[in-house]
Structure formats: C-alpha cells, structure tokens
Amino acid sequence: MKPFDSLPSADGLWTGLRDRDGKDIAIVVAQGVIRWIGERTALPAAAADRPSRDGGGALVTPGLVDCHTHLVYGGQRANEFAMRLAGATYEEVAKAGGGIVSSVRATREASEDELFDSASQRLRSLLAEGVCAIEIKSGYGLAPEHERKQLRVARRLGVAHGVTVRTTFLGAHALPPEYAGRSSDYIDLVCHEMLPALAAEGLVDAVDVFCERIAFSLEETERVFKAAQALGLPVKLHAEQLSDMGGAALAARYGALSCDHIEHLSQAGIEAMRAAGTVAVLLPGAFYTLRDTQVPPIAALRALGVPMAVSTDHNPGTSPALSLLLMANMACTLFRLTVPEAIDGITVHAARALGLQDTHGTLAIGRPANFVLWNLNDAAELAYWFGQRPVRTVVRQGCIAVGEGA
The whole model's pTM is what? Predict the structure, then answer.
C-alpha cells in the first residue's frame, strides 16, 4: 500500500453504483465529504459538471467498521491452538501460564516500533477488505509503560494508514504475574494511576474490562467503570463469554457503548441493554476457535430490538481473524443472523458500538467519504463468499485507498 498522504482524492461525481436494494445511485464527494447521495435520476444539474468516476455497476456500501480488536501485541499463540485441539479448555490454557499472560510477556518485550510494524501488517489485511474504522484495545501490557506503548501504537496506526482508530483502555484484561493473588491492588493501580495518566495524554477513547471467573469480578469491574465515569469516558465490557456473571446489566447501568461476546447473556441482561441503548457485539471468530457450543441469544436480542454488531475480535489467542467479511459469514452460519443483520452488524451497528454513529456506518450527506465498491451482483454475496476479496474500490477518509488510481 502507498503511504496514505500520497493517495489521490476521491472528490468528484461517482456514478454507476448500486445500493443494497439494487437502486442506481450516485455520490458527490467534495473536500473529502459526501455532499450529495441519492438515485441517479435525481442528481442535481450542478453536480453533473463535476469530474466523474464510473463505478461500473458496483455494489456500494458504507466503509466497514471492525468494532472489537486487540490488534497490537507481541508474538503469537499457535501453540495454544494446538493445546485446545488436544483437549485443553480456555481456562486450562490460562492456568498453565498461557492465554493472555503469554501475550503480555511478548508485548512487554517488544519495542514500540516492533509492535507498530507487526500491527501494520495485520491492519493492511483489514483495510484491503474495506475496513474504514477500527477499535484497538490495550490489555497486553498490564503495566503503565506497556499499556501506554500499546495505545501509542494504536494512535500511530490511525495516522499512518489514514483510518479512524478508536482506542480502548483494557488495563483490566488479566491479572499480571507480579500481582498474583492481589487483584484488588491491581484494580487500584488501573483506576488511580494507569487510567487517569493515559486519559490525560489523550490516549483513551473508551474503557473496557474482562468480567469473568478467570479475570475480574463484578465489584472490580464497577470500580473501573466508576473511574472511567469520573473522567468522562464511555465504557464497554467483555461480558458473559464463559458464564453469566451479570456483567451486561452492570455495564448497562453505566450506559455502556457495547457488551461483547455475550454467549451466556440472560434475559435480564438483554432488557437492561435495550433500556440503555447498548449494542450487542457478536464475536463468531472466538466462538469458532474455542469450539464453543453456547450460542448467543440472537432471537431474544432480535425480539427486543437490541442492535447487533459483528467484529473480528482479532487477537493472538482466540480469534486470529483478519477478515470482517468472514465474520459476517460466520455470524450467519453459526449464529443464524440474516444477511441484512450481518451487513448492518459490520456497518451501522458496529459504528454505534464505537460511538461513531454520527460519522461512520451509513452513507449520508455531510459525513466523511468512507465507502466501498464491490464486484458483486447481490448484497447477500457480502456474507455468502469466504476466502474471496471482492473489493473493487475503497474510499477512506476522502481518499481512494484501494482500486483504480490508488
């Protein structure tokens, strides 16, 4: 890929486009912003004089949004994949010194530049498939200097690759070895030292916690949420992945942007999320890798109108996925989402899960030009194919990032 600052502008009149309903539409971009969008026959006469770009009948969608990733880390954990195939459970791997803590060791040993280089390679795969906004969590440092290192890399990635990056502080991801048996003391460090300092440096857009038996309790989670609230930061939660801890209901009380994983989500949790406007983030990559059998309560979420997002959950241990389209396919095949739900899950609802609903996830006048042209005949093909990259053109932050002229 070329450096982002050398990419051509997407300004002009884009025609030869079809929306999800098969309508012939046009888009006018000026100064990197969508100035008009609608059916081709309704195009204002003044817009017809602009430089024209022919989409060749391509399907057009908003730029994709990957709303839950752990993209910045050192090393990899293929050995744990083999352990699980041999019968070890997620908890057994963690108790044997693997899991998150093994990534912590590798991340602490890596320099900032090494983390940037490895994460850039992974990010390029996602961008080439049409991702225009992405969340990147910390949580593999678990010490002030190393959490800072991860978040600094995340900010650098956004600038270098011209992609919207939302950073999430996940200091409460696991208990670092030096705090073994002292989880309360570690949460004090997270709340009173790490989070305030990193927020003051402008490195934190949201705060997350892993609330689970092998991680942090409801009481510890709430302490982190209170610290985030005091700093005016929104919260998210790794909730109900391995058991029903009641984390979703707690997160909803704090107006959480999203609750993620949620395989064991209860009806009470669903109702709390609906009342709070909290997005349910589905992570089929982790479900698949862990060979889980507890499917998220899709029908109940659907019945109450809780928005459902879909994400890669890219991480080295349980979801080494670098295709958001594959996750859309898995959400349909494994979780029984409909195709429209899957597409909304990687666009409009994913944007909402990051607090980006005013700028990303839909195509509308006044929004930054982030859209994808696909060599597809039917919108259902976005969730149908896997192992194929049907991208024709990616317009990201008002520039042609992939495709002719890029």
Answer: 0.96
